[in-house]
Amino acid sequence: MLQNKIQDVFNEPGCSKNQSKSDKERKKGCTKALQPGGAAGGCAFDGAKIALQPITDVAHLVHGPIACEGNSWDNRGSKSSGSQLYRTGFTTDINELDVVYGGEKHLFKSIKEVLDKYDPSAVFVYQTCVTAMIGDDIESVCKAASQKFAKPIIPVNAPGFVGAKNLGNKLAGEALLDYVIGTEEPEYSTPYDINIIGEYNLSGELWQVKPLLDHLGIRVTCCISGDAKYHDVAQSHRARANMMVCSKSMINIARKMEERYQIPFFEGSFYGISDTTESLREITRLLIQQGAPAELHDRTEALIAREEARAWQRIAEYTHRLRGKRVLLFTGGVKSWSVVSALQEGGMEVVGTSVKKSTREDKERIKEIMGQDAHMLDDLTPREMYKMFQEARADVLLSGGRSQFAALKNKMPWVDINQERHQAYNGYEGMVNLVKQIDLALYNPMWALLRKPAPWDMGEART
Question: Which ranges in the chain are annotated with CATH 3.40.50.12380?
Fold first, then answer.
């Protein structure tokens, strides 16, 4: 059953890159087979867990050794406006006897214990490598537990060894499609209802965009999965339009919701002024196409004009200090192109952007924004990154925490742009915040102090 699901995901019609392949190549999937040890921190289980963990009012129970839960627990700064249950780690913590005799009874008892102690809206059960290899059937256990306790118990069958993180994202989406989406009906629906797919509310970024939509009367029925509630996900099939944010990691959800429930979707971004504007316009267009009043268009344009003017006025305080500064963007996915646009709007020059986790469509977007000679980096070793700073080809690095040391070792500023960050950069307000953080990093007086020779070196120079 799992292999059939994987083949179905590999044959994703919504991915134009996938459809350009031959039948043989399509079956191989999008990534190379993982080598032993290569799955650590980036396996299918990890991808499934980070995709679903922002659903805040459910218990996320990992069926496997405790190290699997430790690897992925709370590894993103996804915020919640309500329940904090999603931040509690649950694991069956199987032992040697479970490996020998099977862990299904252990799993059933763990589900009961979680329900008794926490009474969550649902329990998501994640398969891991060890329990998959010993043959534990989590689908059957979840079905039996759901019938016994009258609560939704959702199996997420994405053991780490089946592939990389992106495959895990899609398998998580399949679990929602199979067991959650469409299982409940909302009390009411409106012509202004939308879903946002692939947005994880990192550092509260969803909350920077939601006021714009609220002002227009557009209701976010569900965000999959940032700050989501189980019942919202279950009722999300009644939305009128879908916006897909995260670089097609959940394209299967958007595409199958269009097939099953006739909900049109588009891929957009809320990073940068122009991308935020285009996303608002596309949401409005789809809603009007689906039956919303035509006057929504005029109200959207009025909001855009007001917010753009306000954002540009605030950015102008920093533009003269940032104009011409060279930025190395070392990230992936949707940020590989959407942040490029945002940086250029701030007057900066992007000397290179990584595309290791980006799709073919992402790369085409980069070429549109930066030109055909865009410096797209498939991979960049720390040594090469360090050399770029030494040769003064970049003034600041925007990346995740693992890449910061090449810049810091070279006494150059670094700004966190990855999921662990503590700043929100979505929407018009987020763009102002991004420019402000880059300005603070570049002009922090500590860099000048760090680059000065040490006092003892200055003394040697005088003698």
Answer: 193-310
Tokens at residue 110, please?
A: 């763990």
Of 77, 55, 16, nearest in space to 251 by CA: 16
| Residue 265 φ/ψ, nearest 5 degrees | -140, 165
Every domain range in the chain assigned CATH 3.40.50.1980:
31-179, 323-422
Fold of 31-179: Rossmann fold (3.40.50)
In sequence order, which ranges of 11-122 are alpha helices (DSSP H)? 16-19, 23-27, 44-52, 66-72, 96-101, 104-118
Torsion of CA 129, 133, 134, 138, to 10 degrees: 60
Q: pLDDT tens, 329-379?
A: 877 655 666 677 778 877 888 887 776 655 566 666 666 666 655 566 666
Architecture of domain 193-310: 3-Layer(aba) Sandwich (3.40)
Residues 6+ apart with CB under 8 A from 454: none
The second-level CATH assignment, the architecture, of 323-422 is 3-Layer(aba) Sandwich (3.40)
Cα–Cα distances in Å, from 452 out to 28, 83, 299, 420, 457?
Answer: 53, 49, 55, 31, 10
Which of 2-11, 76-85, 122-131, 272-281 is the least confident region? 2-11
Write out pLDDT tens, residues 3-58: 888 877 877 766 655 555 666 665 555 555 455 445 555 789 988 998 999 999 99
